[in-house]
Amino acid sequence: MSIDINGKIALVTGANRGIGKAIVDSLIEHGASKVYLAVRNPESTVELAKQYGDKVVTLQANVGDDASISALAQAAKDVNIVINNAGVVQPADLLSADAFAALKHELNVNTYGLLRVAQAFAPVLQQNGGGAFVQLNSVASIKNFTPFTTYSASKAATYSITQGLKDVMAPLGIAVLSVHPGPIATDMGDQVGMTEVAEPANVVAEGIVSALKAGDFHLFPDTMAKQFGDAYDSYAQAIINGQ
Fold first, then answer.
1. Does the record carry Hydrolase as a key word (predicted)?
2. So what's the pLDDT on residue 192?
């Protein structure tokens, strides 16, 4: 299913910085008529609001909270594209007690957060004639990175859920895109020590626009991610995209 950004109304979680902000820039550049900026702190989008005026609308939202996401869906009833970008990483020694707290936090935001957003917005997208649901996963969703095992586990779960969403949303006229970046120049990338190999966030943002138009399910946008995608492709085509 091909989705053209031009004229569409979109919502981006975690829209205030990093990949989320780059996605907002790309959506507007490619003709989106309005973009909802779903963020925990509305003050963090002041500069985006100055830049884009009435093309953006800031909404307070926390993907880790059920009531917050229900309210978000009520406030953005006209969306055609939902991009769930918000996520967290909490490094922890796997053999320490900290691992339990890290995994709980990452699962709540990354994994349960995805399910909250998908359940809240599937009826909205269907009511608006279909559209697209985009989930920011990671190369860590298909390959564990030992220092970030709990994060990798949460992203493996989100990737599995994204595959399920592809199947259940298709009859509703909703295309699903699973995005798997490698190291990207963001605060999170700096946090996990990937600064030297990180690529600009607009690589992901422009990749999303192109992948939606092409009707793809997987997107491996940057150099490292493309290496993963090339190695993974035959399995993905036969098993993930197969019948």
1. no
2. 53
What is 9-240's CATH number? 3.40.50.720
Rounded to two decimals, the pTM is 0.94
Radius of gyration of the chain measured on its C-alpha atoms: 17
Q: What is the pLDDT of residue 189?
A: 47
C-alpha 218: how far from its chain's center? Answer: 12
Residues of the chain where predicted confidence (pLDDT) is lower than 50: 189-190
Say if residues 141 and 180 touch (Cβ distance below 8 Å): yes
Q: What is the three-state SS of the chain?
A: CCCCCCCCEEEEECCCCHHHHHHHHHHHHCCCCEEEEEECCHHHHHHHHHHHHHHEEEEECCCCCHHHHHHHHHHCCCCCEEEECCCCCCCCCCCCCHHHHHHHHHHHHHHHHHHHHHHHHHHHHHHCCCEEEEEECCHHHCCCCHHHHHHHHHHHHHHHHHHHHHHHHHHHCEEEEEECCCCECCHHHHHCCCHHHCECCHHHHHHHHHHHHHCCCEECCCHHHHHHHHHHHHHHHHHHCCC
User: What pLDDT does residue 1 have?
Assistant: 87
pLDDT value at residue 187? 58
Instruction: Dig out the tokens for 82 from the structure.
Output: 């939902």
Torsion angle in degrees (nearest 10) through CA of 171, 142, 210, 12? 70
Asked whether the beta carbons of 113 and 63 are under 8 A apart, the reply is yes
Maximum CA pair distance of the chain?
Answer: 50
